[in-house]
Amino acid sequence: MLSKRIISCLDVRDGKLAKSVKFVDTRDIGDPVSTAQKYYEEGIDELVFYDITASSDKRDIMIDVVGEVASKIFIPFSVGGGLRTVEDCTRVRLAGAEKVNVNTAAVANPGIITEASEALGAQAVVLSMDVLAVPVSDATPSGYEIVTHGGRTHTGIDALAWAKKGEALGAGELVINSIDADGTKEGYELKLTRMIADAVSIPVIASGGGGKPEHLYDVLTEGGADAALIASILHFGEYTIRQVKEYLQGRGIKVRMV
Question: Which residue from 46, 69, 112, 176 lies 20 to 30 Å from 93 (Cα-Cα)?
Answer without folding.
Answer: 176
